[in-house]
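TA notes, week 10

Several of you asked for a full example with nothing omitted. So below is the full record: structure tokens for the whole chain, then the designed sequence directly under it. When grading your own attempts, check the secondary structure regions first.
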């Protein structure tokens, strides 16, 4: 009986997921044309239904009759409140915002559902953050100093947060209902039709014969999949089962293998063109074409991955690893591998080209899905039942993957709406401005600390949503360009997944590697140290974001790539041989000087490089260090 019910429940959720996926595909294609509020309300309703049917009230109550009854009541409440709002929003909008008492009562139900959805789908931490912001209007009149303001009632707040486009049904859920769901479905199509195997084959072939080929395969493979997945921890779970055992077999220690996978899976979130889906929200909030987000993100992402390549290589040399013998039976040229992967390569390149030329990301993703299907039919020269089964499974899997992101987006709407309605956002910005004395560097440091703390334990999208509404405006107050400010908090929202003590990506990797959790967490933190430095360079070296004249941009990029080498040497403590602590420290300083945009800093950094290189060369032959 239990198994039958669970199977029926899972099938019901799959049907709901398939229907909402088809709905969004038809909407993007133009076959269904609905207003923005209709789409957002319907999207959140379906996501909450799936969430409450799949996530128990408490883990220990999973399968309990009382838990199922509570979940069904929540599903009914989600349907009822959403249908009511669908019938009322036009009248409220056309009347200039006039509401009735029932609107407020239904709004309270929706807010409760969103908070419970955030708790079940993302975690208690996000729900508590939302609740803390939501309670501010009720206690603000009793607070001292800058936080004192006129109070607001529960009905007034619920009406504002649920009947306007500045709360639950604002920009975040709008992005979930347009960009994010299309890209999760696109990623599911790639996965179902075999793109993962192709990416792994290509990565392995590119690194064949290299020292630490397995680790370098992990870097490329996890990057290709991580940019689409939207979750660093999820990416570790998918790719780590392949790459971590491969690295351990090569000779990396378990905590090193786990740390490498955690870092590169996190880095996938910052790699264009998809950037873990959070970049689509950034484009909407900042009000800039998505192509601009890709443009400013490409060099920092390449610097990050160049840095981890250096780290991986130096750690291999330090451990005394040797290149694995080349499999002489595997002689397939890279060109042939790319040709066999054309059904994935061509649609992916078309996706990038369309976004660069100004097509909306969700339109570009829809066209790329169609191209992927057509290319697979041409390559396989048939359309059979398996083709349709894979397509249906991809739509279902993609839609189900959006559930926790939609919950996070709706919860972020509560925070953004409260900040805007009460003026709390400007007060927080003012506090950071006052604490920093208006000095950009101190404001950046304070923002970094707040961003890492608020981002801990949250998926990339949820972390960025909170940071974009709470702390990014503070940087604008001290003269940081708005896009630079958002990229700054976006990076720290991403790296919070490898920042102890709450480093989700590292913890997942530690489980796969069978290594100590804290050891993996701190190792990943040091391996990924470049990602903590780069955001500061966005402000002090705008050339890394391709801002400015080419005579400034080109030297900044070149010196940046040279600079991350110095950071890697500092992290591993090895060049031709092990470096004493003082040499590691000044190599780290040289890396910072080269990352900083400027002729004099570049010259100073290169002078230090030359000094250390001479000291290494004059000290004898290179000696691999024994594995620790």
């Amino acid at each position: 009986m239990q198994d039958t019910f669970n199977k029926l429940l899972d099938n019901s959720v799959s049907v709901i997921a398939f229907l909402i996926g088809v709905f969004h595909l038809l909407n993007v294609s133009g076959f269904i044309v609905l207003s923005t509020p209709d789409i957002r309300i319907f999207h959140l309703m379906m996501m909450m239904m799936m969430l409450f049917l799949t996530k128990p009230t408490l883990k220990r109550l999973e399968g309990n009759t009382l838990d199922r009854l509570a979940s069904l009541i929540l599903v009914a409440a989600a349907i009822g409140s959403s249908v009511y709002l669908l019938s009322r929003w036009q009248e409220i909008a056309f009347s200039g915002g006039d509401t009735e008492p029932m609107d407020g009562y239904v709004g309270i139900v929706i807010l409760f559902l969103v908070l419970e959805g955030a708790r079940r789908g993302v975690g208690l931490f996000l729900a508590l953050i939302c609740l803390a912001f939501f309670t501010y209007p009720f206690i603000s009149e009793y607070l001292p100093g800058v936080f004192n303001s006129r109070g607001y009632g529960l009905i007034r707040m619920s009406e504002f947060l649920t009947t306007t486009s500045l709360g639950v049904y604002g920009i975040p859920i709008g992005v979930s209902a347009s960009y994010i769901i299309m890209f999760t479905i696109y990623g599911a199509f790639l996965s179902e039709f075999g793109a993962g195997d192709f990416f792994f084959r290509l990565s392995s072939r590119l690194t064949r014969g290299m020292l630490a080929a397995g680790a370098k395969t992990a870097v490329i493979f996890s990057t290709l999949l991580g940019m689409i997945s939207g979750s660093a921890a999820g990416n570790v779970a998918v790719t780590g089962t392949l790459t971590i055992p491969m690295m351990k077999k090569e000779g990396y220690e378990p905590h090193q293998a786990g740390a490498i996978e955690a870092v590169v899976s996190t880095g996938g979130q910052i790699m264009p063109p998809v950037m873990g889906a959070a970049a689509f929200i950034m484009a909407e909030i900042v009000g800039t074409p998505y192509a601009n987000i890709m443009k400013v993100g490409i060099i920092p992402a390449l610097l990050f991955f160049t840095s981890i390549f250096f780290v991986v290589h130096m750690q291999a040399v330090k451990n005394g690893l040797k290149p694995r013998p080349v499999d002489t039976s595997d002689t397939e040229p890279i060109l042939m591998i790319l040709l066999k992967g054309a059904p994935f390569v061509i649609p992916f390149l078309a996706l990038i080209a369309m976004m660069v030329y100004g097509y909306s990301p969700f339109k570009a993703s829809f066209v790329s899905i169609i191209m992927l299907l057509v290319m697979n039919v041409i390559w396989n020269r048939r359309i059979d039942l398996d083709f349709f089964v894979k397509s249906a499974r991809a739509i279902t899997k993609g839609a189900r993957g959006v559930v926790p992101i939609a919950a996070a987006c709706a919860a972020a709407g509560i925070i953004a709406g409260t900040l805007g309605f009460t003026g709390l956002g400007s007060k927080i910005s003012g506090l950071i401005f006052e604490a920093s004395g208006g000095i950009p560097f101190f404001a950046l440091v304070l923002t970094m600390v707040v961003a890492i703390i608020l981002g801990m334990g949250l998926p990339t999208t949820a972390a960025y949503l909170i940071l974009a509404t709470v702390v990014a405006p503070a940087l604008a107050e001290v003269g940081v360009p708005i896009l630079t400010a958002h990229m700054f908090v976006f990076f720290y929202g991403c790296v919070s997944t490898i920042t102890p003590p709450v480093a989700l990506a590292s913890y997942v990797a530690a489980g796969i590697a069978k290594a100590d959790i804290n050891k993996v967490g701190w190792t990943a933190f040091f391996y990924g140290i470049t990602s903590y430095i780069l955001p500061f360079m966005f402000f002090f070296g705008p050339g890394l974001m391709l801002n400015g004249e080419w005579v400034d941009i080109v030297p900044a990029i070149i010196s940046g790539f040279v600079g991350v080498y110095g950071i890697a040497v500092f992290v591993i403590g090895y060049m031709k041989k092990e470096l004493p602590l003082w040499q590691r420290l000044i190599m780290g300083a040289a890396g910072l000087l080269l990352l900083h945009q400027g002729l004099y800093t570049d010259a100073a950094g290169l002078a230090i490089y030359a000094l250390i290189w001479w000291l290494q060369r004059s000290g004898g032959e290179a000696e691999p260090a024994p594995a620790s």
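The two ends are 54 Å apart (CA to CA). Use that as a sanity check on your answer.
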